[in-house]
Design brief:
alpha+beta, 2,3-Dihydroxybiphenyl 1,2-Dioxygenase, domain 1, 3 helices, 41% strand
C-alpha cells in the first residue's frame, strides 16, 4: 500500500498557496510541515486529512526522476529488508533505516534512489 507521495517544487511558498487552494474542495489541508532546521536545509508541507499527510511538496534538489513514493510496511524489519534488497538490486542509499522523529516519534523509514533517480521509501509507523 502507498503511504505517501511527494515531489520538489520551484517556489515553495507559491506551490503551498496553490495546493492549499486547489485541494481545499477535496477536504485536504496542510496537516504537517517540516522546517529547514529539522531537515538541514529543505522545507516540506504535507497535505492530508485526519492528521495524516499523504501528499507532500518541498524544496531541494530535483532528482532526475523527480518523484518520491513511500510504501507502508507493518514492521520495522520489513523496512530493513526493503533497504537491503533495494541496495542489492542496484539502488543508491538515500537514508539508511532508522527513526525519523522530526516526522513523529515512531516514524521508522529507509530511503533509496532507484535507477531512474526516484526517491523510494519504505516506512513503518508502529512503535518498536
Amino acid at each position: 500500500m502507498l503511504d505517501h507521495i511527494g515531489f520538489t517544487v520551484a517556489n515553495f511558498a507559491e506551490a503551498k498557496t496553490f495546493y492549499t487552494k486547489a485541494l481545499a474542495p477535496l477536504g485536504l489541508t496542510v496537516v504537517m510541515e517540516v522546517t529547514k532546521e529539522q531537515t538541514g536545509g529543505d522545507e516540506h508541507a504535507g497535505f492530508g486529512r485526519d492528521n495524516k499527510p499523504f501528499f507532500w511538496i518541498g524544496t531541494g534538489d530535483k532528482a532526475r526522476g523527480g518523484l518520491h513514493v513511500a510504501f507502508a510496511t507493518g514492521t520495522r524489519a520489513q523496512v530493513d529488508e526493503f533497504y537491503t534488497a533495494a541496495i542489492a538490486a542496484g539502488a543508491r542509499d538515500n537514508g539508511k533505516p532508522g527513526l525519523r522523529p522530526h516526522y513523529h516519534p515512531n516514524y521508522y523509514g529507509a530511503f533509496v534512489i532507484d535507477r531512474d533517480g526516484n526517491n523510494i521509501e519504505a516506512v513503518c509507523h508502529a512503535p518498536g
